[in-house]
Design goal:
Largest sheet: 7 strands, mixed
CATH architecture of the largest domain: Alpha-Beta Complex
Number of domains: 2
Mean pLDDT: 96
Radius of gyration: 22 Å
CATH class of the largest domain: Alpha Beta
Number of helices: 10
Number of strands: 25
Strand content: 15-25%
Oligomer: single chain
Structural class: alpha+beta
Distance between the termini: 49 Å
Shape: globular
C-alpha cells in the first residue's frame, strides 16, 4: 500500500447511515480523522470524527466492537502518540473497519451508543508534542516577504537548495479556540529598542504534519521511505509578532516573535484519507537547481504534493456586535509548497536527528502567487502600508483586540467526497 492508493473507502457512492454524515462538508465517511476527546467524567480517549459526532474509538475497541483490534486498547487513552507510532498498516486496517461500521446499516444499533454529539464533547490536543519544527516551504510567501526587505534579491541563494526550518516551542502549541494573548518584547525604534506589547500581531496559514513511527538517533530516513513516517495532517496557525521578529531574527532566527502560541485544528487527517487529493511536487522553474540526490525520489516527485483549498477568515468585535459574519481575507492552495513533506522529513533527519511519534512539523506559510492568496497579513497589507477595509468599515494592517481569526482547508476533487480539517481559530484578548 502506498500513500496515494485509492480504494473503496474513497468511493463517493458509499452510503453512510450516521445521521448528517452523508455529504457532510468536513467529516463524511470518506475522511475518518483521529482525535482525542472527553465527555462527562470520562478521561481523554481516542475518537473519530463522523458527521456531527465523535465516535468513541477507545470505548468501541474496549467493548469488542472492532474484532482484531483488541491489542489497541492500551494505546487509545490519554494521548495518541502510541497509536501514531504503529504506522500505516494499523491506520489502514482501522480505516477499513470503521468504514464498514458506518456503511453497514445492520451494525447501526450496535454502533450508535458510541456516537457522542460533537457539541457534547471536549476536544484535546491529540498528542503530547515532544518537538515542533517549523519550515519555510511556501515559496510565494518567502518571495513576498523577501521583497519587503530586499526588493532586488527577495530569495536568499540557499532557498531553492535546502528546506529551511527552525525549531519551535512545543510547550505553547495549543488547540483551536485558545485565546491569543498579545506578546511583549523588544521592539525596534529609531534610537534603539524599546519594550512593550507587539503592535504588528499576525497570522501564518500553514499545514501541520504529525509524525508517526520515528527513527533511531543517527539513522537518517531516506526520502523514498519518508511517507512511512507521516501519520497525518492538520491546520496550523503560527501566530507571529512581526515587530519583535524584525528586531530579533538576525543572526539566529525567530525566538520570542514565534514562541508565545501556535494553534492547531483538533483532528489528524490521515494520508490515506487524502489519497485522492495527492498532486505532483511543485513545478520548479526551468533554470532552478535540482535538489540534491538525498531529496529526490520519483514517487515523491509524482505524488508528494497535496491539492487543498485554503482560506483566512476574520471577524472583529465590532462585526460580531453588528451581527456581521466573518469575512474571507484571502486564501490559496497547498500546491504552492516548494518542498514536499517527504523532503522535509528526509532533510530533518539527514544529519542523524531522531523523530518521535507525535512530533509536529509546520510547513511554513502557504501563499499563492496571485493577489488574494496571501497566507499572512504581512503580505496582504504589504508590510502594513496598504490596510484592508472590512465590511464594518474598519481597517486592518495587523490584528487588534477582539479579532477572531480562523484558517480553513478543504480537499476537493471531482468524483470524490469533499473532506475538511475542522476549526483552527483564536481570538485576540489583549
Amino acid at each position: 500500500m502506498t500513500f496515494w492508493t485509492i480504494d473503496e473507502t474513497h468511493s463517493i457512492a458509499a452510503c453512510c447511515w450516521v445521521e448528517g454524515a452523508q455529504g457532510h462538508p468536513s467529516f463524511p465517511v470518506q475522511n475518518l480523522p483521529f482525535g482525542l476527546f472527553s465527555d462527562g467524567d470520562s478521561g481523554p480517549r481516542a475518537g473519530v470524527a463522523i458527521g456531527d459526532f465523535v465516535f468513541d474509538l477507545a470505548g468501541a475497541v474496549s467493548c469488542g466492537l472492532l474484532p482484531g483490534f483488541e491489542m489497541l486498547d492500551h494505546v487509545l487513552r490519554e494521548r495518541l502518540n502510541e497509536l501514531l507510532a504503529l504506522g500505516a498498516e494499523v491506520r489502514l486496517g482501522l480505516r477499513k473497519a470503521l468504514f464498514t461500521l458506518f456503511t453497514d446499516a445492520a451494525r447501526a444499533d450496535a454502533v450508535r451508543p458510541f456516537l457522542v454529539p460533537i457539541d457534547h464533547a471536549e476536544l484535546h490536543l491529540p498528542c503530547e508534542v515532544g518537538d515542533y519544527t517549523d519550515f519555510y516551504a511556501g515559496i510565494h510567501h518567502a518571495t513576498r516577504v523577501g521583497k519587503l526587505f530586499r526588493p532586488d534579491n527577495p530569495l536568499l541563494p540557499n532557498y531553492r537548495h535546502v528546506p529551511i526550518g527552525y525549531h519551535g516551542r512545543a510547550s505553547s502549541v495549543v488547540l483551536t479556540g485558545t485565546p491569543v494573548s498579545r506578546p511583549s518584547g523588544q521592539l525596534p525604534g529609531a534610537d534603539g529598542p524599546r519594550f512593550g506589547p507587539s503592535e504588528r500581531l499576525d497570522l501564518e496559514l500553514e499545514l501541520g504534519v504529525w509524525i508517526g513511527p520515528g527513527n533511531t538517533l543517527g539513522t537518517p530516513i531516506p526520502v523514498e521511505q519518508a511517507h512511512e513516517h507521516i501519520a497525518g495532517f492538520c491546520l496550523l496557525n503560527d501566530w507571529s509578532a512581526r515587530d519583535i521578529q524584525a528586531w530579533e531574527y538576525q543572526p539566529l532566527g525567530p525566538f520570542l516573535a514565534k514562541n508565545f502560541l501556535t494553534t492547531l485544528s483538533p483532528w489528524i487527517v490521515t494520508p490515506e484519507a487524502l489519497a485522492p487529493f495527492r498532486a505532483p511536487a511543485f513545478q520548479r522553474e526551468s533554470d532552478a537547481p535540482s535538489p540534491l540526490p538525498y531529496l529526490c525520489a520519483a514517487d515523491d516527485h509524482a505524488h508528494g504534493g497535496l491539492s487543498l483549498s485554503l482560506g483566512v477568515w476574520l471577524q472583529t468585535a465590532s462585526m460580531r456586535e453588528k451581527g456581521l459574519s466573518e469575512v474571507r481575507l484571502s486564501g490559496g492552495s497547498s500546491d504552492a509548497l516548494y518542498w514536499t513533506v517527504a523532503q522535509m522529513v528526509a532533510h530533518h533527519t539527514v544529519g542523524g536527528c531522531n523523530l518521535r511519534a507525535g512530533d509536529l512539523f509546520g510547513t511554513g506559510t502557504i501563499s499563492g502567487e496571485a493577489d488574494g492568496t496571501e497566507g499572512s497579513l504581512l503580505e496582504l497589507t504589504s508590510g502594513g502600508s496598504q490596510p484592508v477595509t472590512l465590511p464594518s468599515g474598519e481597517i486592518r494592517t495587523f490584528l487588534q483586540a477582539g479579532d477572531r481569526l480562523r484558517i480553513s482547508a478543504e480537499a476537493r476533487r471531482e468524483g470524490y467526497a469533499t473532506i475538511g480539517f475542522g476549526d483552527c481559530a483564536g481570538e485576540i484578548v489583549d
